[in-house]
Specification:
Length: 139
Amino acid sequence: AEVSTQSTGTRVKAIKKELNAEERRAAEITAARREKRAVVAVRPGKYGPGKLLQEQPEFLLPEEVSSSLRKLTVPSNNTQDRFLSLQKRNMIEVRQKVNPHRKYKLKTVEKWRKKLPEEIIELTKMKTKKKKKIAVESS
């Protein structure tokens, strides 16, 4: 009876160790997941086909800074900063600029005014010949 209680006691301790180890592993995994979520929440996400380019903040050297704060000019543009902020927060797609282009080639048409007077006379003669030809064929 004593041997069976000792073996069950050691077995209970082993089971407790296993359970504690599993709990520790689960706690480590949940902590890692929380850290990963925190990192993902801070960084800009992916919305749209492009990637957001992180620009380095512009700064002035001590020699370039004016002595008066009134004379200090900000090198940034408020609308661009707001636009970038919206892109970082995934409210606007990040896309590359598309240059305008035509889907078809433009036809080149020469205006009558640009032609020489001799060419105009020839064209009018050709048109009258076509009209006469069509009138003869139809009758």
